[in-house]
Specification:
Layout lengths: L10 H5 L2 E7 L6 H10 L6 H6 L6 H12 L5 H17 L2 E8 L1 H6 L4 H19 L2 E9 L4 H13 L5 E7 L11 H9 L3 E6 L5 H9 L4 E4 L7 H10 L3 E3 L1 H6 L11 H6 L4 E3 L4 H4 L3 H12 L3 H13 L5 H17 L1
Parallel strand pairs: 1-2, 2-3, 3-4, 4-5, 5-6, 6-7, 7-8
Helix pairs in contact: 5-7, 8-9, 16-17
């Protein structure tokens, strides 16, 4: 049985205009799409074999599963397809804007042709924008356990493609193997070149990892699960209105949060932290951003007014120009007035 009393989000939740700020492109590949990709490469894979790639029991297993899935992405056409299908699913849930992590660090590790891959990504994005009206920006994500030199290569590529919808630089991977202090120069470089900054922090490591991300001048915190262990940190996040990209189902599925009742999403919200709801790796966690809204309503008593606030937060926290945010928020207000 899943985490949801009702796996189908309500009409209210689906109708809310939303942005998604923490979603990994490669973690959004549905098994059916991966099967299409494998068949396109001449493999005779079965549905059961593909679904086996999505099985894991802990965070380390999840990282291995993610690695095994991404190994099948070989051509620019593969990246075009997964981008387009993601945007199709976002449209179905009234997600008007998404800021999508691409694991550029993994592409470099595999010695893939980044220039060709990026052309595929942009073709998918442009087609998706035209067909579904979804706005999408890229965040180039480095793998922290590959080290700071590799992270700098990712940041340099982000700068190179900055004029083509690459808005930010992020840091994912295993926090337990590489603390934020190793990446001070990388973040300084990214900031100097006008990239927006986010970092996974407090997912598998303690609150000191989140403090470290703030010291890197990260503008948003990915996960922030362990902030609950440090009241001073909660106060700091609330005071500075640092957006926290909360991914409830993700934290449960990786075992980093042992039970849904222990998840701090409601405590953060009540403490004035700027919470946004996100799916992280929706295909791997069996969720979507609308399901996350439905989940917090059912499990933590978020009212419709609270959900509206979370939806507004998602636009406020986006790495968009002020005038674009206002455009989205005005649209949100128009829709909210009709509900």
């Amino acid at each position: 049985m899943g985490l949801f009393a009702n796996p189908n989000p309500s009409a209210f939740v689906l109708g809310l205009p939303k942005a998604e700020l923490h979603i990994h492109l490669e973690g959004a590949i549905e098994p059916a799409t991966l099967l299409d990709i494998q068949h396109g490469h001449g493999l005779t894979t079965t549905v059961a074999e593909v679904e086996a790639l999505y099985q894991y029991s802990d965070f380390t297993g999840f990282l291995m599963s993610f690695k095994n899935i991404t190994e099948h992405l070989k051509t620019p056409a593969d990246y075009e397809l997964i981008t387009y299908r993601l945007m199709e699913r976002l449209k179905a849930e009234n997600v008007l804007h998404a800021e999508v992590y691409i694991s550029v660090g993994v592409c470099l590790f595999r010695k893939q042709n980044i220039a060709a891959i990026f052309e595929g990504l942009e073709r998918g994005r442009a087609r998706g924008e035209r067909d579904f009206g979804v706005s999408l920006l890229w965040i180039f994500d480095a793998v922290r356990h590959f080290g700071s030199a590799e992270a700098l290569r990712v940041a340099e590529l982000a700068v190179q493609y900055q004029d083509r919808n690459v808005v930010g630089f992020g840091l994912g991977g295993d926090e337990r193997k590489a603390g934020p202090e190793l990446f001070r120069e990388v973040y300084a470089y990214a900031a100097e070149h006008g990239l927006r900054l986010t970092a996974h922090a407090g997912e598998t490591a303690g609150p000191e990892s989140i403090w470290g991300a703030l010291n890197l001048r990260a503008e948003r915190i990915g996960h922030g699960l362990t902030a609950q262990q440090d009241p001073d940190l909660i106060q700091e996040l609330a005071k500075r209105q640092i957006p926290v990209e909360i991914c409830v189902t993700s934290n449960l599925k990786t075992g980093e949060c042992p039970a849904i009742a222990e998840h701090p999403v409601r405590a953060y919200f009540d403490s004035g932290v700027m919470v946004t709801l996100n799916s992280d790796d929706p295909a791997m966690f069996g969720t979507s951003v609308a399901r996350e809204y439905q989940l917090v309503q059912e499990q933590f008593g978020f009212t419709e007014e609270h959900l509206r606030e979370l939806a507004r937060n998602s636009f406020e926290a986006a790495f968009l120009p002020a005038e674009k945010k206002v455009e989205f928020l005005n649209l949100f207000d128009t829709v909210a007035a009709r509900t």
